[in-house]
Amino acid sequence: LLPDAQDPSKVSITLEATFLHRYYEYLTHLFNIQRLKRAQGLTAVVEIPLEGYWSMPDWDRSEP
Protein backbone atom coordinates (compact mmCIF):
# COMPACT_ATOMS: atom_id res chain seq x y z
CA LEU A 1 0.00 0.00 0.00
CA LEU A 2 1.25 3.42 -0.92
CA PRO A 3 -0.20 6.44 0.89
CA ASP A 4 -1.24 9.38 -1.27
CA ALA A 5 1.05 12.39 -0.68
CA GLN A 6 -1.79 14.84 -1.41
CA ASP A 7 -4.63 13.13 0.48
CA PRO A 8 -3.76 10.98 3.52
CA SER A 9 -7.18 9.32 3.44
CA LYS A 10 -6.29 7.61 0.14
CA VAL A 11 -3.90 4.77 -0.62
CA SER A 12 -2.78 3.07 -3.80
CA ILE A 13 -2.32 -0.65 -4.18
CA THR A 14 0.63 -1.88 -6.22
CA LEU A 15 0.23 -4.36 -9.03
CA GLU A 16 2.33 -6.83 -7.03
CA ALA A 17 -0.05 -6.56 -4.06
CA THR A 18 -3.01 -7.13 -6.39
CA PHE A 19 -1.41 -10.27 -7.86
CA LEU A 20 -0.54 -11.64 -4.42
CA HIS A 21 -4.08 -11.01 -3.23
CA ARG A 22 -5.53 -12.85 -6.24
CA TYR A 23 -3.07 -15.73 -5.81
CA TYR A 24 -3.99 -16.15 -2.13
CA GLU A 25 -7.70 -15.94 -2.98
CA TYR A 26 -7.28 -18.71 -5.58
CA LEU A 27 -5.40 -20.93 -3.12
CA THR A 28 -8.11 -20.46 -0.50
CA HIS A 29 -10.81 -21.19 -3.07
CA LEU A 30 -9.02 -24.39 -4.17
CA PHE A 31 -8.64 -25.46 -0.55
CA ASN A 32 -12.38 -25.05 0.02
CA ILE A 33 -13.17 -27.00 -3.16
CA GLN A 34 -10.92 -29.83 -2.01
CA ARG A 35 -12.54 -29.79 1.42
CA LEU A 36 -15.95 -30.19 -0.22
CA LYS A 37 -14.63 -33.03 -2.40
CA ARG A 38 -13.27 -34.86 0.66
CA ALA A 39 -16.65 -34.42 2.37
CA GLN A 40 -18.21 -36.20 -0.62
CA GLY A 41 -15.69 -39.03 -0.40
CA LEU A 42 -13.73 -37.90 -3.46
CA THR A 43 -9.96 -37.65 -3.66
CA ALA A 44 -8.15 -34.32 -3.98
CA VAL A 45 -5.51 -34.80 -6.69
CA VAL A 46 -3.49 -31.59 -6.38
CA GLU A 47 -1.61 -30.62 -3.23
CA ILE A 48 -2.02 -26.93 -2.42
CA PRO A 49 0.88 -25.04 -0.82
CA LEU A 50 0.22 -23.94 2.75
CA GLU A 51 0.31 -20.18 2.21
CA GLY A 52 -2.15 -17.36 1.94
CA TYR A 53 -5.30 -16.78 3.95
CA TRP A 54 -6.12 -20.41 4.64
CA SER A 55 -2.73 -20.91 6.34
CA MET A 56 -3.54 -18.36 9.06
CA PRO A 57 -3.88 -19.89 12.56
CA ASP A 58 -7.51 -18.82 13.04
CA TRP A 59 -8.67 -19.93 9.59
CA ASP A 60 -11.31 -22.67 9.67
CA ARG A 61 -9.58 -25.74 8.22
CA SER A 62 -12.03 -28.19 9.76
CA GLU A 63 -13.08 -31.22 7.78
CA PRO A 64 -16.71 -32.42 7.77
Provide a concise account of the structure shown.
The chain has 64 residues and is mostly helical. It is built from 1 helix and 2 strands, in the order ββα.
Structure description:
The protein has 64 residues and is mainly alpha-helical. It has one domain (2-53). 39% of the residues lie in helices and 6% in strands. It is built from 1 helix and 2 strands, in the order ββα. Strands 1-2 form a two-stranded antiparallel sheet. Strand 1 (2-3) and strand 2 (11-12) form a beta hairpin. The relative contact order is 0.15.
Element pattern in H and E: EEH
How many structural domains?
1
Question: How many helical elements?
Answer: 1
Secondary-structure class: mainly alpha
Largest sheet: 2 strands, antiparallel
Indicate the mean pLDDT: 90
Give me the Rg, rounded: 17 Å
| CA distance, first residue to last residue | 37 Å
Strand content: 5-15%
Q: Helical content, roughly?
A: 25-40%
Total beta strands: 2
Oligomer: single chain
Biggest sheet, spatial arrangement of strands: 1-2
Shape: elongated
Low-confidence stretches: none
